[in-house]
Amino acid sequence: DAGTLATNSVDSAELIDGSIDTAHIAANQITSAIMPTGSVLQVVSSTQTRALTTSSATYVTVGSLAITPSSTSSKIMVSYNSGICYQDTNSISWYAYATAYRGSTNLGRGSSGIGGLTGTYHTSNAKDDLGFNMSFEILDSPSTADAVTYYVKLRINNTNGVFVHDLDGYSTITLTEIAG
């Protein structure tokens, strides 16, 4: 019994699986290296409130965030959510596409990106504004344990432009490391 065992006389070789409950494991003993595949290892998030406007037909950066993976086998879930406002000055068809880049690598489908909005808007009133939610998620395998920066980029097909998190709105970028 515990009264007759010498200090440090029992090590892991003498223990059977399941014999130690979580109440007896020190918090600093659970590391990312022993977490099973699919476990969430860390989450970093950024909220951006500065309103941005773009009318570019090529991708422009609307936000960025960095993460340092625990292992080269880790995967990173890139999540983005933002309100955008499209300002119409006449009846037109339009689109806005968003994508994520890891460094200079587009993780989406080229010019179509990851997520997009498209529509035709007819108005007799100049300067009508349309509000939408733009969001996407994509799972990436950066294959590095060095810091990685992800960029969220947006493009639109006309010069009227879109306003990203306009009117006291905000956008969020969240990076979730998942054990591989």
Topology:
Layout: E1 40-48, E2 52-54, E3 60-67, E4 75-88, E5 92-102, E6 105-106, E7 115-121, E8 128-140, E9 148-156, E10 162-164, E11 171-178
Antiparallel strand pairs: 1-11, 2-10, 3-9, 4-8, 4-10, 4-11, 5-6, 5-7, 5-9
Structural class: mainly beta
Strand content: over 45%
Q: How is the quaternary structure best described?
A: single chain
Tell me about the largest β-sheet. 6 strands, antiparallel
The helix-strand sequence is EEEEEEEEEEE
Give the low-confidence spans: none
Roughly how much helix do the residues carry, as a percent range? under 10%
The radius of gyration is: 24 Å
The average pLDDT is 80
Spatial gap, N to C terminus: 41 Å
| Strand segment count | 11
What overall form do the CA principal axes indicate? elongated
Q: Please, how many helices?
A: 0
What is the structure about, briefly put?
With about 180 residues, the chain is mostly beta strands. About 0% of the residues lie in helices and about 50% in strands.
How would you characterize this protein structure?
With 180 residues, the protein is mainly beta. 0% of the residues lie in helices and 48% in strands. It is built from no helices and 11 strands. The strands form 2 sheets. Strands 1, 2, 4, 8, 10 and 11 form a 6-stranded antiparallel sheet that branches. A hairpin with a 2-residue loop joins strand 5 (92-102) and strand 6 (105-106). It is elongated. The two termini are 41 Å apart. The mean pLDDT is 80.
